[in-house]
Amino acid sequence: INSFDNYKLKAIYYPCKNSSKTMIWVHGYTSHAERESAFPSLFYRSLGYNVLIPYLRAHDISQGKCISFGALESKDLLLWVNKVNEINKQGSIIIHGLSMGGGVALFACNKEMENVKAIIADAPSTSIRDFFNNVSKEVFKEEGEKVAMYAIKRFEKEFNVNIDDYNAINVVKDSKYPI
Asked: Which of 6, 14, 88, 10 is nearest to 52 (CA)?
């Protein structure tokens, strides 16, 4: 697919014969999508699901300059849902995300996604702000708070987002799907 900001994003699709159910597996931060999804994919295939494994932007075979910790990847997920619906118009979709992929799934949970029936958020990130704060404190110790503030401002400018819109605790309150 082409992302909203014109990157070519790739995925691997494993169809399951005569199935109208699809699992979209969303990998974690810097993970290799196919390797990370090996066991879950086999499990879902054994249950009769088609499996779509997108490579998130700036990961392996998908284009992109930067990882946005779910801010832009959640928008890409909406496009992947549309792609699955092109393949199987009357099917049902479950989204399963792990780690950062769980955050990606949660950041999309308040959006209308045709045929999505449920979201599984496995060890999701809670918010992008928390990520910056935690990493900055761990790496930069006393200067961590200042570094996090700078990083957050730079992040918001670079990706044209309000970082507080990507807080899973707040977003799930308006979820349109069981999680």
From this structure: 14
Region of 171 (left: φ > 0; alpha: ψ -120 to 50; beta: rest) is alpha
Model confidence at 32: pLDDT above 90: no
Angle at 61 between CA 13 and CA 38, to 5 degrees: 45
Q: What is the mean pLDDT of residues 21-35?
A: 91
Q: How distant, in Å, are the alpha carbons of 46, 77, 79, 119 from that of 57?
A: 28, 10, 12, 20
Contacts of 128 (CB under 8 A, 6+ apart): 68, 69, 70, 71, 103, 155, 163, 166, 167
Residue 83 buriedness (CB in 10 A; 0-12 / 13-18 / 19+): middle
Do the Cβ atoms of 52 and 87 come closer than 8 Å?
A: no
pLDDT of residue 33: 85
In sign, the C-alpha dihedral spanning 66, 70, 71, 73 is: positive
Estimate to the nearest angstrom the gap between the alpha carbon of 173 and the chain centroid: 18
Alpha-carbon distance 95 to 104, whole Å? 10
